[in-house]
Amino acid sequence: MNKKQLKWRNRIIVALAIFAVVMAVEETGLLESLFGPTGSVYASFVFFLIPYLIAGYKTLLEAVHNIRRGDPFDEAFLMSVASLGAFAMVFFPETDPHMAEGAAVMLFYQVGELFQSYAVGQSRKSISAMMDIAPDYANIEQDGGLAEVDPDDVAVGSVIVVKPGERVPIDGVVLEGSSQLDTAALTGESIPRHVEAGANVISGCINMTGTLRMQTTKPFGESTVARILELVENASEKKAKTENFITRFARWYTPVVTFSALAIAVIPPLAGMGAWSDWILRGLTFLVVSCPCALVISVPLSFFGGIGGASKIGILVKGSNYLEQLAHVDTVVFDKTGTLTSGTFNVVAVHPEAGIDPDYVLSNAAYAEAFSDHPIALSIKKAYAGDIDQRRIKDAREESGHGVSATVDERVVLVGNDKLMAEHGASWHDCKLTGTILHVAVDGAYAGHIVIADVVKADAAETIKDLHDAGVKKCVMLTGDRRDVAEAVANKIGIDEVHAQLLPEDKVNAVERLLADQDPNSKLAFVGDGINDAPVLMRADVGIAMGAMGSDAAIEAADVVLMDDKPSNIARAMRVARKTMRIVWQNIVFALGVKIAILVLAALGIANMWLAVFGDVGVAMIAILNAMRCMRVEKL
Ligand code: ADP
Ligand code: MG
Fold first, then answer.
1. Rounded to two decimals, what is the model's pTM?
2. What's the pLDDT score for residue 482?
3. Of 147, 371, 466, 517, whose CB count within 10 A is highest?
């Protein structure tokens, strides 16, 4: 608890203690013997007023303030009217006094409020555990020593030093040193990652063993850590439908119950159906139960908890609306390369044309791919062990879904699939090997092709099974790759539907068609790695980017970002979403159910104030405790 909450708690304890003493004294009949039968009523009025004011003066002031502002209908108002009303029953000397109830309403209301504020603080903490990834400083080399500077002040391309135990402040590449990195705070993954010179490192990881000298590749504001923080902070702005519904509901609900309570208190006695005091008391009881705070707090708290819990296991959800939609996903569409497969291709074979050296084919391919970040390009560059002299390359162009073209030493080199060859009028011939075929043409003459193969990720098959088990009806794979490769992967992992040889825009069309066929209450999720599929990520109901550690396009375009590149986290994200929605609905049904029951009993004169206090504070506490379960996602 923070300072304010501690003070608040102490005030409530003092008020509760005084309340208990006054109750006891009243029960023993001591007041009556001291002040006489009428006098004792006024004495206990004064005595109950003491704990009432100690605990509730702020709420009373707030109610007055709201009335002045012209916006009276909130919990503070309901509670103030109900409790003051109970005290005012003293003006009906012929009935039993209700000061104890009046004080109790306010006291327990305060207990509930304090509990609420504590619960909200608690779940905020789980988000701020995430916030802990924010680095305070960066070490830069200066005058032969190290100086600590604000990460915001470090220019791109500067050299920074990260010592063991420190957090990497800015994204960069290792120049010198090797170490183990703890990425748990970002990905939930507990196995450390080994890095050495040349490795890309993202900010937010903890450097565990060795000192690293690294060169920054981004300013702090665009580094992974800053973007994640921004994303998590903004998540609460995108509200789920259920959340908006509750807010709207509370807006008309409170005035409606206030006027109903008034009607209950006034109309029946005017119609001669009984004593004023009896009906007024029923009206007041009605007010106490009707307080909507169980819903108004627990529903957003559940979403908040779900988002916070998900972030602990490396799943970033950009808003409660996406969490809500994720729970209703029944079609999951996957991109192949980098999503279901690892994206690190091995060269299976190099087939040069007659009279051409295989090295010539590979080196031209590597040169043409020099500026591409596509997984294929990275793999080819890795397979070509030699250095690439970038000065020899001009006009490098990437043609999405086709391949690349570049001018290498004044010769135009094309590397890509048959579509690319056809488009540029180069000749090519097919290969009987199963694999992704990269045709290489130099100055329009066919040089040969490289056959590469990707490996299916270890947990891909399990993911598809998990998703089917979770009730996902259809898992679809879209790819720009060849049909035979696509089908081999699909069969291996149990995909229901495959579409191959697609250009990025064809993928959007394929998703549009699937969306059109979709049951209107169900949602479609697209999972990609952000390379060549940002438009599809945006078009799907829920765009999920995988392995986003570093891919800017993906973090931007996606609604849900999986920090790890493990597909099994998709099923996990869905389980988190479903658990959250289950808890949200449990709370809505439970809170409204109990309240409606007590409201009916109150109107009939069966429920008393004590039951009403339970109907309000008790229900709110149970709903909040239930909502806090959303944060626990480790076992999902
Ligand atoms: P996927 O849909 O499997 O993620 P992409 O849409 O990124 O694949 O690419 C589709 C196809 O386009 C690849 O299989 C490859 O034939 C070709 N291609 C794309 N980028 C490149 C590149 N940089 N070099 C060579 N070929 C490429
Ligand atoms: Mg792709």
1. 0.84
2. 92
3. 466
Q: Among all ligands shown, which has an atom nearest to the Cα of 371?
A: 1
Three-class secondary structure assignment of 597-625:
HHHHHHHCCCCCHHHHHHHHHHHHHHHHH
Residue 532 C-alpha to ligand 1 middle, in angstroms? 8
Catalytic annotation present for 335: yes
Residue 240 lies in a domain: no
C-alpha to C-alpha distance for 545 and 563, rounded to whole angstroms:
8
Domain assignment present for residue 627? The answer is no
Answer whether residue 45 is part of any domain.
no
What beta strand segments (E) does 236-383 contain?
315-317, 329-335, 346-352
CATH number at residue 362: 3.40.1110.10
* Interval between CA 414 and ligand 2 midpoint (Å): 20
Structure tokens, 12: 């409530």
The whole domain housing 408 covers: 342-456
Q: Which atom of ligand 1 is nearest to the CA of 401?
A: 12
Ligand 2 midpoint to CA 480 (Å): 8
Q: Is the dihedral of CA 302, 308, 310, 315 positive or negative?
A: positive
Strand segments (E) across 367-455: 393-399, 403-408, 411-416, 436-442, 445-453
* 404 close to ligand 1 (CB < 6 Angstrom): yes
Asked whether residue 40 is assigned to any structural domain, the reply reads no
Pocket flag, ligand 1, residue 202 (CB < 6 Å):
no
Starting at the edge strand found earlier in the chain, the sheet holding 179-182 runs: 193-195, 179-182, 206-207
For residue 401, the CA-to-ligand 2 centroid distance in Å is 9
Determine which residue's CA is closest to atom 18 belonging to ligand 1. Answer: 403
Determine how many CB atoms are found less than 10 A away from the CB of residue 124: 13
Q: Is 479 in the pocket of ligand 1 (CB under 6 A)?
A: yes
Ligand 1 atom index nearest CA of 486: 3
The count of domains in the chain is 1
Residues of the chain predicted below pLDDT 70: 126-132, 548-551
What local confidence, expressed as pLDDT, does residue 188 receive? 73
Written as six digits, the tokens of 339 are 């999503």
